[in-house]
From TrEMBL:
GO terms for biological process: inositol catabolic process. Keywords: Isomerase. The keyword Isomerase applies. GO terms for molecular function: glucuronate isomerase activity. InterPro entries: Deoxy-glucuronate_isom_IolB (IPR024203), KduI/IolB_isomerase (IPR021120), RmlC-like_jellyroll (IPR014710), RmlC_Cupin_sf (IPR011051). This is 5-deoxy-glucuronate isomerase. The keyword Membrane does not apply.
Length: 248
């Protein structure tokens, strides 16, 4: 079912097969000087999970800080320069070339792409920032960031979308806190993983709720990759009915 990797295990290119997936790939990129990445036949989404760095792609240059994202189209290269930055680079096969884009967290945070889900009374309140949503030009990606509350649940009620979208979670900015990530089709055979800063979980299918510890909420990047290119409906999912009829 799921694949759980610690930070040192993500420093190489992780193919879809490595992750138990069909389309999505990932790799941690430590930027200590200059790094050049080539997209080839994959569209890329780079997420800064620590530090800051400068970039150049096509004729565009700029600076990214933690929680910013970069979308890199197929058949392009991007140059990253920094002294102590960490990125997660997601990839997905794509047949069409879209435009490069720097998506600052500060930009997403102040508009309608910043969503609040859940309820404080049952411990499911969380913030979700939809960086690459259905309106963003991309072949397969739906990507964003989720911050849960201390001791709170996210991805609730449990839901699944394996027939439509694979998913990868990368946890970041968590300090010394930890969380528990569940993945299952049937609760009687559920898998649960303790996750901390920098860990990665791939989710080919199944329900995938998670919970933070009392000293800190879960914080993670999500990257959904569509099984069918162009089919990118965030709410095309099925909840576990005993826990809720719709994503709240």
């Amino acid at each position: 079912m799921a694949v759980h990797l610690k930070p040192d295990e993500t420093k190489r290119y992780l193919s879809p097969e490595d992750l138990g997936l069909t389309y999505g790939s990932a790799m941690r990129v430590d930027v200590m000087d200059e790094v050049v990445l080539k997209s080839g036949d994959r569209e890329l989404c780079l997420v800064c999970i620590s530090g800051e760095a400068f970039y150049k792609c096509q004729d565009e240059t700029g600076k990214v800080v933690m929680a910013d994202m970069l979308y890199v189209p197929i058949e392009e290269k991007i140059i990253l320069k920094g002294e102590n930055a960490v990125f997660i680079c997601f990839g997905a096969p794509c047949s069409k070339k879209y435009g490069f884009r720097h998506i600052p967290f500060a930009e997403v945070d102040k508009d309608s792409r910043h969503k609040i889900y859940g309820q404080e009374k049952n411990g499911t309140l969380r913030d979700v920032w939809n960086f690459i949503d259905e309106s963003f030009p991309s072949g397969r990606f739906l990507t964003g960031i989720c911050y849960g509350k201390n001791g709170g649940w996210t991805a609730w009620p449990p839901h699944e979308h394996g027939a439509e979208r694979e998913e990868i979670y990368v946890y970041f900015n968590m300090g010394n806190s930890f969380g528990v990530q569940c993945v299952y089709n049937d609760l009687q055979s559920a898998e649960a993983y303790v996750v901390t800063d920098g860990h990665l979980i791939s989710i080919p299918e199944g329900y995938h709720p998670n919970v933070g510890c009392p000293c800190g909420g879960l914080r993670y990047v999500y990257c959904m990759v569509s099984v069918t290119e162009g089919d990118r409906d965030f709410m095309n999912l099925r909840t576990q009915k005993i826990y809720g009829e719709k994503l709240e």
